[in-house]
Amino acid sequence: MRPQTHTLLLVFILPLWGTGPACTASEEPEPFCGDGIVQEEEECDTGSSLSDTTANACRTSCTRPSCGDGVTDPDAGETCDDTNAWGGDGCSPNCQDDLGGPEQEPNDNLDQAQAISGGEQVTGALLDGDRDCYVIQVEANGWLAADLVGDGLEHCPTPSTLTLYSPDGNLLATGSPDSDEGCSPILPSRVEAARFMEAGEWTLCVDGFQGLVVPTYTLQWESGSDSCALDGVPVLPADDPDDDGLINLCDEDDDGDGVVDEDDNCPHVPNGPADPNITSGSSGFLRHWLLAGPYFGNDSDEACRPSEVPLLGSDDDGNVSPHVGDIAGDSAWSVHIDDDFRIDFEHLRTEDAPREVYILNWLYSATDRPVVLALGPDDGVRAWLNGEEVGEVDGCQGTSADQFRFNAQLLNGWNPLLLKVYDQGGGWGTYVRLYDAKSNTIVDDLGVSLTPDGPWADDQTDTDDDGLGDYCDPDPLN
């Protein structure tokens, strides 16, 4: 019986030992992407709803939707996603719709330039060594404004340049990425070639700056037919000799003499009923003169000093008081007005050097005052003010404003200023203006006349009846 009793006890006790391990809790499973729990290395985890094709969904890699994953995700601000990093195919590298229509290859040079019109924006990209060109029709006296922008966020593209070519293929302007007015702007207010343009096909070319690859750019541009209507265009003295704020191309009366150009026998020299009111102006440079010469064959005694020979038909050059058309030795007095600050005589080089020319005007000062006569001659010069010789230059050099300075005295009223300019060869011209001797400031309030009789006044006088007024006729008596 004992063995039997022992057996029964074992049967009872063994289950007690066997239930111990069975009551221990199971080990936790390893975390994984898709378990619905965002782990430290995961951006998101939506469990069974992970998707690589559903918009705005957490991806199967437990990463948030991103530009370039091939799915357009509006919640991320995307309007497209074509998986590539280039523009010009409808979708920009930052997953925005391209701002413009796509470029059309090949358009790598002026001959292949893509035609665009109506201010049409164009989006493209530049691979290594690539260039994109676009041709635009511009009307006569028209204007063109152009710039580059980047992707849909409208910031600048990878640094790029925009280049403007004329209808005959000449490079006239370049917009560079260091501008403070845009990304690579060509603006008519800043670029002379972009206003008052000739009619024809003009070309804009886009290049990566110093050969950079440009993943995307958009060419934005507009054009107009009337450059005179532009705001902010600088008006230079050479373009506005009558100082009325209108450049000649927009001015019906270029010289401001009260006679419209089409009826004016001197459209660029004021000889009408209106007082031209010529002054030295803010720059101080004197541009209005009577001119006699050229005279040839008189050698200089010292380097390039003008000759001692009086050539104006009197014994004393400094005291002449001519009118336009008066005989001046072997020449006659005519009007010479320069559009630039530099007085240019190079059109008078009809014979070999040495050669000389005289220029004369009358300056009105409201007071007696000491001044400094500042000259920049090529080559030598002699100067008389009120009949007194006040300075000379005997060196041979090119023109340079204010290079030589001489003390002089202006009187209250009209003061004749006469220069004799010598040329030994090469360039020929001079700069002339006056400074206040006390303050060393430019004298900008002088009246200027081309007659010894006071203010300059004329009314289309044409002595020889040749259709040219005396004030613009190189030979007004014949």
Fold topology:
Blueprint: H1 2-22, E1 101-102, E2 114-115, E3 122-126, E4 132-138, E5 143-149, E6 160-165, E7 171-175, E8 200-208, E9 214-224, E10 288-296, E11 327-328, E12 331-332, E13 334-337, E14 343-344, E15 355-365, E16 369-375, E17 380-385, E18 388-393, E19 404-410, E20 413-423, E21 429-430, E22 432-436, E23 447-449
Parallel strand pairs: 1-3, 2-4
Antiparallel strand pairs: 3-9, 4-8, 5-9, 6-7, 6-8, 10-13, 10-15, 11-12, 14-21, 15-20, 15-23, 16-19, 16-22, 17-18, 17-20
Terminal Cα span? 167 Å
Which architecture name of the domain at 288-449 does CATH use?
A: Sandwich
Low-confidence stretches: 1-24
From N to C, what is the helix and strand string?
A: HEEEEEEEEEEEEEEEEEEEEEEE
Topology, number of strands? 23
Please characterize this protein's 3D structure.
Helices cover 4% and strands 27% of the residues. It has 478 residues and is mainly beta. Among the domains are: 101-229, Jelly Rolls (Sandwich), CATH 2.60.120.380; 288-449, Jelly Rolls (Sandwich). The strands form six sheets. Strands 10, 13, 15, 17, 18, 20 and 23 form a seven-stranded antiparallel β-sheet that branches. Residues 1-24 have low confidence and may be disordered.
What labels describe this entry?
disordered N terminus; Jelly Rolls; 478 residues; mainly beta; 7-stranded antiparallel sheet; 5-stranded mixed sheet; single chain
